[in-house]
Specification:
10 helices; about 0% strand; about 45% helix; two-stranded antiparallel sheet; globular; Cytochrome Bc1 Complex, Chain D, domain 2; mainly alpha; single chain
Length: about 250
């Protein structure tokens, strides 16, 4: 009799514990939780920190990928291009797609907050100072032979005549631009964007200031296209390997 009388009590305790456990399980939001779901996060600092900072730098600089805290780059690229790249990524590089429609985790609204936040935080509407910048993207292939000549004129002073590295005017040691491993990680558009926008945190000027003295003049869009073509011609089909694969 004593055992039978304990059974209802034990069942009641187990049921109570089970209900409490379900409601307080780790990771389960309570009914009055104020923590927003991932798709509800709409503030730029949080979105940037969680999705961009690991590659582009905590403050948009000094990351492995192109600096976003660069007013010239932001002005030339424009919000629409940056939003597109953020959404669909860059095939063949480490830049993944972030839009849900492309397999990413962010909503269209979050991507808009990200790109508009970059412009508002790091942009400067007056940075181009009335100059006419080259097009963000090239409309036609470049000429590697002409690109080598343009590189010698505008870039060799800091990067070396053969683009394998040198010393910039500010003393910064520049690495090789024709290393197959480097070229495997950056797209042609990435090369173009860096030439146009420069890398101000490292002392690299934008397209307007690659020459000094009486010969100073901006690079033309075609010269930039040709330089990119010459650099890209050094890509290897087997980056990171000591030799090329034989047919």
């Amino acid at each position: 009799m004593r055992l039978r009388s304990l059974i209802p009590c034990l069942l009641s305790c187990v049921l109570t514990l089970a209900i409490a456990g379900c409601n307080s399980a780790p990771g389960r939001p309570s009914a009055d939780s104020t923590v927003p779901r991932p798709g509800q996060v709409l503030d730029f600092p949080t979105l940037y920190s969680q999705n961009c900072a690991s590659c582009h730098g905590v403050d948009g600089r000094y990351g492995a990928a192109i600096s976003l805290a660069n007013p010239v780059y932001l002005a030339v690229a424009g919000v629409a291009n940056i939003e597109r790249v953020t959404a669909i990524g860059v095939p063949g590089t480490a830049m993944p797609p972030f839009a849900r429609s492309s397999g990413g985790m962010l909503t269209d609204r979050q991507i808009a907050v990200l790109t508009q936040g970059m412009s508002a935080t790091w942009g400067n509407p007056a940075v181009l100072a009335g100059s006419a910048p080259p097009a963000y993207a090239s409309a036609a292939p470049g000429d590697p032979a002409q690109g080598q000549k343009a590189f010698a004129l505008f870039c060799a002073r800091c990067h070396g005549a053969d683009a394998t590295g040198g010393h910039a005017d500010n003393g910064v040691v520049t690495g090789s631009l024709v290393d197959p491993a480097y070229l495997a990680l950056i797209s042609d558009q990435g090369l173009r964007s860096i030439i146009i926008g420069g890398q101000p945190e490292q002392g690299m000027p934008d397209w307007r200031n690659h020459l000094s003295g009486s010969a100073a003049r901006p690079m033309t869009g075609q010269e930039i296209t040709d330089v990119v073509a010459w650099l890209a011609s050094h890509r290897s089909a087997t980056p990171g390997q000591p030799y090329r694969q034989q047919p």
